[in-house]
Amino acid sequence: MVAHVETGHAPRNRFIAFASRWLLTTNHKEIGTLYLCLSFGLFFIAGAMAMMMRIELFEPGIQVIDPLIYNQVLTLHGLVMVFGAVMPAFVGLANWMIPLMIGAPDMALPRLNNFSFWILPFAFLILLSSLFMEGGAPNFGWTFYAPLSTTYGPPSTDFFILGVHLMGISSILGAINIIVTIVNLRAPGMTYMKMPLFVWTWFITAFLLIMVMPVLAGCVTMMLTDRHFGTSFFEAAGGGDPVMFQHIFWFFGHPEVYIMILPGFGIASQIIPTFARKKLFGYHSMVYATAAIAFLSFIVWGHHMFTTGMPLFAELFFMYATMLIAVPTGVKVFNWVATMWRGSMTFETPMLFAIGFVMMFTIGGFSGLMLALVPADVQYHDTYFVVAHFHYVLYPGAIFGTMAAVYYWLPKWCGNMYDERLGKIHFWTATFAVNLTFFPMHFTGLAGMPRRIPDYSMQFADFNMVSSVGSWLLGLTQVLFLYIVIKTVRGGEKATDEVWEGAEGLEWTVPSPAPLHTFDTPPVIGDGDHR
Amino acid sequence: MNRPPRRRQTLLLGVLAVGMFGFAFALVPLYDIFCEITGLNGKTSNQAALLEEVQSTSAAETNRLVTINLLGQVARGLPWEFQPVETELVVRPGELTVTTYHARNRGTKTVVAQAVPSVSPGRAAKHLKKIECFCFEAQELAPGAAIDMPVRFLVDSELPPEIIALTLSYTMFPLPDAEAGQILSRNEGNQ
Predict the structure, then answer these.
(1) Chain-centroid distance, C-alpha A242
(2) CB-based contact (8 Å) between A104 and chain B?
(3) Do B122 and A311 touch (CB under 8 A)?
(4) Handedness of CA A205, A207, A210, A211 (dihedral sign)
(5) pLDDT for residue B127 is more than 70
(6) Could you read off the pLDDT of A162-205 as tens digits, one per residue?
(7) Cβ-Cβ contacts under 8 Å, A180 against chain B
(8) Distant-in-sequence, close-in-space partners of A482: CB < 8 Å, separation ≥ 6
(9) What is the pTM of this model?
(10) What digits encode the pLDDT tens for the residues A291-318?
(11) Which residues pair with B167 in a beta bridge?
């Protein structure tokens, strides 16, 4: 909703109008834009923290950053990337695209939508403000294991707890909104099995969010009461158990990693058919595979804890359950490849990012399989091999997925085509830099370099230097991405309504740029139309 | 557009979220029960076992020996000495054994502390039956005071045959003053 204020003091009132437009908006497209802008900003903040760490890790020894500061930067890098960059970016895409893809006029609960977004900036303000507090920011890693975060946590840990609560509330409300929208507002004729896969993957992700974000909230609440109210959930002295912290955390944490990748699967499943000019291969199996991955994500948390002294039976159970996830994931990768098989492929930037996603996410998947093996994991645990693994699934996975989505839908959002030449430069430099940064970490990890430590012994020096140079290039490519997005929003060649030859879906039937209000009268989907 | 189903669904999903918040707390007792039944994390029962009962179900074996390593640790912030008098015992399953831990308060204040036991490997925990243990009660020591505390236990003959050695470890934790007062008065009530 746009607030119009007409008086003589133009500049000031223009500011009020601007502020109240964005503060009070209940429009799904505007809220989607807000989510995307916030996550882009936080992506750069957390990225700057990564750059700081790579400066320190350029050479062995302590040169630039005090180890205590290093721990804080490391913790906030993880927290802000997970909760601030990846998750809000996907929620932003969901806000923009789900109503357009299912033919709905808006989200089902628009005011709740506004509320869930506007909690977030405050959550991150609270979290990031801890950097300037006495005793420093949280310094226990994004997994905040007790007793590091309870007995030994800095005073600012309480701000961290409040921040996590707010992020959790925002995510839960956003997820409720997405489910209610998908259940109620599909256009007539759009059955569940006709929904685009991005909508399907988000539908399942939203259930994951509702199931596990409250568990995270419970976990930080127990931390809070342990710290201040005399309880002993995680304190052995009072009959508690610090290992229980890890069970509760990873019960949240493992579904969380699928929350950060399932929407990416959906994005790849939208983009690859468009540029292969074929229907998606195996639509039904894609839906079932997503559901299977979501289900399995609840019973594999123990694979993060193989070295805590689990009994053999539990280790075997978690090992086999984890390896089972490779089956539905393999189905997905097979279907993407089969969609491209004998397609009339063209390689515009979104397609490049989607193919890069499939290839490099699979590398991360394979290192995940290696980590699932108990005897191997005992050696890999807490080394750079783990860092290499999860950065391969998150950077070329979740983040390349988001970038593919931005290139794919940006012309629909702002009506202008992006600069294809710059987009391709962005993709190729980012791909080169991602591999230069994270591939050597496999080797240092296998050789035994521990993670989360600012110093390392001499034999790791060369690979770390390569990683650092790669990371700075990677940081630069994202500045190029920012430039491309701003340039596209400000002008450029006008996009057609369909934008991409061969693109299917309701979002391409509305004008470019998409007007503020679309599908006031729902479109009708016939029996013959399929996705 | 029909409002009621939308409102009902929102409410249901909200209830699900609240329920999952409760589930996180339900995990705590579940975890404890699970560990107690399976003895997974080396927690031994904090109830004294009855000697007659244990001996009736567990015949003494003559041809099997199990090594018991004893450890004693002091938690952060407790100025106590605390160690086993013997660090290694060789016992027969089913045979009653008595050993002693020694504690001395080197601090300047009277402190109440409680020992928390742990058995490794965890699977052995439920086969270690304690007839009498200082860990069942809180211990109070004045500055400079020392105490010798007995543990009477037996390893039952159902201990899996592949376990030839196990470690019994105690960590002595200081109790907060308020809690200490309650526990001491409860202990006195029991006696």
Answers:
(1) 28
(2) no
(3) yes
(4) negative
(5) yes
(6) 999 999 999 999 999 999 999 999 999 999 999 999 999 999 99
(7) 6, 9-10, 13
(8) A40, A44
(9) 0.88
(10) 999 999 999 999 999 998 888 888 999 9
(11) B69, B120
**Cis peptide, bond prior to residue A147, ω within 30 of zero:** yes
What is the pLDDT of chain A when averaged over all its residues?
93
- What is the C-alpha to C-alpha distance for residues B28 and B97, in angstroms, rounded to an integer? 34
CA B122 → CA A233, A391, B42, B159, B166, distances in Å? 20, 35, 4, 12, 9
Please indicate whether residue A303 is annotated as part of the active site: yes
Predicted ipTM of the assembly: 0.86
- Paired tokens of A282: 């195996």
| Nearest Cα to Cα of residue A402 among A59, A2, A106, A32 | A32
d(CA B97, CA A259): 54
Task: Identify the CA nearest to A61 among candidates A469, A470, A461.
Answer: A461
| Nearest CB to B10 within list A176, A213, A221 | A176
The residue among A222, A185, A40 whose CA lies nearest residue A108 is A185
Q: Looking at the complex, report in whole angstroms how far the Cα of residue A214 sits from the nearest Cα belonging to chain B.
A: 4
Query: Which residues have C-beta within 8 Å of that of residue B185, sequence separation ≥ 6?
Result: none
Contact between B13 and A108 (Cβ < 8 Å): no
* CA pair distance A241, A369, nearest whole angstrom: 29
The CA-based angle A19-A24-A26, given to 5 degrees, is 135
Name the nearest CA neighbour of A115 among A178, A164, A174: A174
From chain B, the residues in CB contact with A214 under 8 A are 17-21, 23-24
Contact present, A108 and A177 (Cβ < 8 Å)? yes
* Nearest-angstrom CA–CA distance, B169 and B84: 9
**For the segment B147-170, what is each residue's pLDDT rounded down to a tens digit?**
999 998 888 888 888 888 999 999
Residues facing residue B62 across a β-bridge: none
Are B33 and A196 in contact by the 8 Å Cβ rule? The answer is no
Instruction: Using DSSP bridges, classify how beta strands B165-174 and B66-74 pair: parallel, antiparallel or unpaired.
Output: parallel
Catalytic residue among A158, A226, A256, A348: A256
DSSP 8-state code for residue A164: H
Cβ-Cβ contacts under 8 Å for A186 (sequence gap 6 or more): A102, A103, A104, A195
**Catalytic-residue membership of A14:** no
Asked whether the beta carbons of B48 and B131 are under 8 A apart, the reply is yes
Chain B neighbors of A230, CB-CB under 8 A: 176
The DSSP symbol for B85 reads: S
